[in-house]
Amino acid sequence: MNRSIARIFKLLLLAGLPFVALASPAVADGPLKAVYGQQTIVFAHVSTTAGATAVGLNDGGLRTLLRATGSVVTWRPGDRYVLITTSAPLVVSFAIGDRRYDIGPIGLQAAFAPYVQGDEVYLPLNELLRSLDLALRQDGTTAVLQPQLDSLDVRSSGNRSEVIAHAGAPLHPRIVQDGSSAVIYEFDGVGTNLAGTRTINAGGIRTLQIAQTGTVRAPKTVVTVQLAPGAVHEIPRSNNDRDVAIAFDGAGTPPQQSPQNQAMQPAPPGMAAQAQTGSPAAAAGPATVTAVTVSPSASGYTVAVAIAGNASFEWHRLRDPDDRLWIDITGAQLQGAPIDTAEPVPLGALRVRQIDPTTVRVALSLAGPKSLVVTPSSSGLSIDVGRDDLADAPRTGSGSVGSVIASGEVAAAVTPAPLDQPGGPSSDDGDSSWKFGPRNTYVPTNPRLIVIDPGHGGSDRGSSRHGVDEAYLALDMSKRLRDILVARGWQVRLTHDTDVDVYQPNDSAHDELQARVDVANGAGARMFISIHANAFINSGPYGTTSYISKPSDVALARLIERELAADGTKDDGIVKSHLYVTLHTLMPAVLIETAFISNPSDYALLTSPAWRQRVAQSIADGIDQYNRQYPVSNQPAQ
């Protein structure tokens, strides 16, 4: 049998966990009628949950809307994930019991977690509509499903740029003004939340300005393109009704900024979006990271993080030779796609991503212990990196941006502590739901030994895609992790260092998993790390998840997760579950699902030796941080 069943079907079923058994917290409501184009859609399976509207998957009106938008929903009773494939195509992923949801690569947070009532899943309506590029607007007493201009991307190469627009309805842009310095396009029938200005300075385009006019039922989005001298534009073209591309030729205008580092900026005075009749006022919400740009300075380079709204931040850097910096901006969402670019010395790689629904992480690799200053302002953060080395540079700091500006630094002699202290390896983390008895009092007999468990192996191949088995990937990452840890002075034992079963071929799940547990418990190991690759019934879900079972696992998991979030795929957080190997090992233990072999993007990462090496490096960094913060009484000095 496939022993992933003993891990409760990975993320697929998890049928015994609380999120499947949750009773509905909702209050049933009357039908909701909304105008969509020329038809009226009636949502009958609706209820109010946490002050927001929920809609059932079996609702006839929802099914009508999904057909009208060319979308397909995938869910089976007992599954955790609800997947919606849009016409883009784009995979939207909701998880029962989890407020987090994904629209393609972007992780967001819903007003409430999807839940099961009877044999029907209820999803947050507003978030579902957002994934379909629609917005529920009120026109007097009538609700309107208004199509949205959801994205406006710029791709530049040399002297040419292409502006690509995508919306929840067919786009037919009209040129309402065509001059030598600017061209104005009007998109009829679509509203937008993108009102503002973007500075481009590449491929013939200086800026893009977006404003919304019209009414709720007849919205218009106006896009003004300010041109560089001599720039010309081509006729808009469309590969399908909902995507339009407009090309510009800069006639020799050199690009000045990397287009993937551009994002919408707040509207300047005089360009604020015009209000729609009956449309709601903009509600206060999370701050938005609108742009991350890199520019040279007198002493090195400046990384500017543009933030619209109020947010707090915390930054940390690792000591030489790691020399990595990360800044977590909390209470914020990333507007646009994640960024992963190579930057000039003294910078290295720049990565920007949404690591959870309310936190944006900006990560930099540095070419040595460079001088570093993080400065907040009302409009964001400035990270000044110098060319000179600084031996005793500050290692951590925090503060706030927006209406309240504050900052502070701490010069640390060691790698900084995690941002959310779990209270030590024997802590219950303040969570009264732990049901594992008294606090952990385990003392390892070999405090320098780490046991690594490569998932699957031998007769159990685990998940597979395109001929690549999970067993091969897990063993490879485990060996890489072993080599790094041994070089750092650890003793390491693998439950199996060749592609074999630990107990015996074709054994039962219980015998096989117990044999792996026995290796760690019998050796008196300091920690236990089990490495896997995840899988799902289709290609939607992606990301890295850490599984724990005991209070003593919390601190180790959090420090490893924090490191993986900087270099891995999407951070799906830490999940508490009764997995056999983490529950029955005596020492702190973590089972890491590194990425989804069933997802094309994650598959590309998993099959990259360089990425697997980064994963091993991140796990090792987390282990070292944990060991420094929580030494055991019988641990010899390093």
Annotate the secondary structure layout.
Elements: H1 18-21, E1 27-28, E2 32-36, E3 39-43, E4 46-49, E5 52-56, H2 60-68, E6 72-74, E7 81-85, E8 91-95, E9 98-103, E10 106-109, E11 115-117, E12 120-124, H3 125-131, E13 134-139, E14 142-147, E15 149-157, E16 160-167, E17 174-178, E18 182-188, E19 196-202, E20 205-214, E21 219-227, E22 232-233, E23 237-240, E24 243-249, E25 287-296, E26 300-308, E27 311-317, E28 324-330, E29 332-334, E30 339-342, E31 347-356, E32 359-366, E33 370-377, E34 380-389, E35 396-401, E36 406-410, E37 449-454, E38 464-465, E39 468-469, H4 470-487, E40 491-494, H5 509-523, E41 527-534, E42 544-548, H6 554-567, E43 571-576, H7 580-584, E44 589-596, H8 600-606, H9 609-629
Parallel strand pairs: 2-14, 25-29, 37-40, 37-41, 41-44, 42-43
Antiparallel strand pairs: 1-4, 2-3, 4-5, 5-12, 6-7, 7-8, 8-9, 9-10, 11-12, 13-14, 15-16, 16-24, 17-18, 18-21, 19-20, 20-21, 22-24, 23-24, 25-26, 26-34, 27-28, 27-35, 28-32, 30-31, 31-32, 33-34, 35-36, 38-39, 42-44
Helix pairs in contact: 4-9, 6-9
Short structural description:
The protein has 638 residues and is of the alpha+beta class.
